Amino acid sequence: MVKVLEHCRVYPAPGGVDEMSIPLTFLDLLRLPAGSTNKLLLFFELPISTDLFTKYAVPSIKNSFSLALKHTLPLAGNLIYPPNFEMPQIRYVKGDSMPLVFAESEDDFDHLTGNHARNASVFHSFVPELPPVSMVSDEPVIPITAIQVTLFPNSGICIGLKNIHAVCDGNTFFSCLKLWASIFQSGETAFSSSGSNLLPFYDKTPLKDPRWTELEATFWNQAKQKKCAGPAKSLSANNVIATFVMPQNSIEELKKQVTAQYPTLSHVTAFTVTCGHVWSCMVKANVSRKEEMYKEDEEDHFGFWADLRRRLSPPLPENYFGNCTMTCIANAKRSELEKEDGFVFAAKGIGEAFEKKVNDIGRSWEDSKSWMDDMDFALGRKPEITVGVAASPSFHLKYEGGAIGRLKKIEHISIDGTIYFSLGSSLDKEGDLEIGLSLPILKMEAFAHFYKERIKLNE
Question: Short name of one Pfam family for this protein (predicted)?
Answer without folding.
Answer: Transferase
